[in-house]
Design a protein that fits this description.
Among the domains are: 138 residues, no CATH class; 135 residues, 2-Layer Sandwich (Heat Shock Protein 90). It contains 14 helices and 5 strands. A 5-stranded mixed sheet has the order 1-2-3-5-4, with helices on one face. It is rod-shaped and about 130 Å long. The chain starts with 6 loop residues before the first helix and ends in a 12-residue tail after the last strand.
């Protein structure tokens, strides 16, 4: 069974520039750990030293240690920024707790990093909402706790505009990086979709080509083998009484086999060769139908051919009409039980063009069908490709068989819209 190849194997994306950037892309956990250390360690140390050395702080020495530990704990949010950016932002906001009690307010950068992470790994809208909430809640928090902080980095009036500017800078950088990341991800995903669609189209084309080959092989091989079997059976029946005629019949078997081999070589040549000669090898046309009918008459099938009008000069239409008559007569030769008439009607004067093959064989078949109905399936596909319709079945009462096809002319077919 054919399997689709992995688009990653077929698609050759441009190599990401920069040795350092490629290294961090391959080691995301290491990158997050280093960011947590270098982004969280300085604010932690600065906050701890500021609170411990400040003799007027309301927290005391142990409170300063607890505040520093909270800053350290908030750094865990950096590890979650890729997979859970909202939770990461909430954890990073813990670093705001000691800000009103510190002279530096260094830990305020951690929630800002959370806003940046939301813009990169979540969405621009969520980053704007988080920045607005953070600005409002932090301003209110600093204002409420300002009486307890004798020494602080900002007054409530200073905090609001200063922190707003810092948040806007984080938003600008985060939105730029996030948009670029999402754009590249969309391009890569689209490239993978195109690769998958290409492979699917190739698979569908291969299936259609296999169906076409099977249909053409059936048209050539089934007809020729049926003729050869019929001739061989007739030769065996008269071998003892009329050896000369039996020899002539066997020569017809050999001629039919040669024609079948020639037809198979022609198809295999088209499949395996790119030469123009093989591609332009002639196909049967409606002009070959009388000779086809005469061959079946020689086999003892009472064929009556009625043709009215002239088919349009379209190779596909001529080939379809020839194959319809060939398949109908072949089935009549194989399965019709004692027919006295096998009618072939080609009405090219009407629109749609009508092709009918029917026989008046007795109910029942001399032998059980050994086919897989591939011939009728192939005819239905061929007729459908030309915009026509096909019907087949027994006559009322179960006697005989009728194959009727309607083929529209070129002008009457629905035209395909340009994509």
């Amino acid at each position: 069974m054919t399997t689709l190849s992995d688009p990653q194997d077929d698609l050759r994306l441009p190599r990401q520039p920069g040795v350092v950037r490629r290294f961090w892309a391959r080691h995301e956990k290491l990158a997050d750990g280093l960011v947590a250390v270098f982004w969280g360690l300085p604010p932690t140390l600065i906050t701890l030293i500021s609170l411990i050395t400040d003799s007027h702080t309301a927290l005391g020495r142990w409170g300063a240690v607890v505040a520093a530990l909270l800053v350290v704990a908030s750094c865990a949010g950096i590890r979650l920024r890729r997979t859970r950016p909202i939770l990461a932002f909430a954890i990073l906001c813990i670093a705001l707790i000691p800000v009103p009690f510190s002279d530096t307010g260094a830990s305020e950068v951690l929630p800002i990093f959370g806003v940046y992470s939301l813009a990169v790994w979540r969405s621009n809208a969520s980053a704007w909402v988080a920045a607005g909430i953070l600005e409002a809640v932090s301003t209110l928090y600093v204002w409420l706790l300002s009486p307890l902080a004798a020494s602080r980095a900002f007054t409530p009036a200073q905090w609001m505009p200063t922190y707003a500017v810092e948040l806007l800078v984080a938003l600008a950088i985060g939105i730029t990086v996030g948009n670029r990341r999402r754009y590249l991800a969309a391009l890569i995903d689209r490239a993978h979709q195109l690769a998958r669609e290409r492979d699917q189209q190739a698979q569908l084309a291969a299936i259609a080509e296999r169906a076409r080959i099977a249909r053409d092989m059936h048209d050539v091989v089934s007809h020729s083998l049926t003729v050869m079997v019929t001739l061989a059976e007739g030769s065996a029946a008269i071998a003892e009484t009329d050896s000369a005629r039996a020899g002539a019949v066997m020569k017809q078997v050999a001629d039919t086999g040669r024609e079948a081999l020639a037809g198979m070589r022609q198809m295999l040549g088209v499949l395996g060769s790119q030469s123009e000669e093989a591609a332009l090898a002639p196909q049967p046309t409606a002009a070959d139908i009388p000779r086809l009918v005469e061959r079946f008459r020689e086999l003892g099938l009472p064929v009556e051919l009625h043709a009215d009008g002239e088919l349009p000069a379209e190779p596909a239409l001529h080939l379809a009409v020839y194959r319809i008559v060939q398949e109908g007569l072949t089935n009549a030769l194989r399965y019709a039980h004692g027919p006295t008439r096998v009618g072939v009607v080609i009405d090219a004067a009407s629109d749609p063009i009508r092709v009918v093959v029917d026989d008046d064989g007795l109910p029942g078949m001399p032998t059980a069908s050994v086919g897989a109905r591939r011939g009728l399936i192939g005819l239905r596909e061929r007729v459908s490709a030309l915009g026509g319709s096909l019907s087949s079945g027994h006559h009322p009462g179960g006697a005989g068989w009728l194959l009727a096809v309607a083929l529209p002319t070129t002008s009457a077919r629905p035209r395909e819209e340009n994509p």
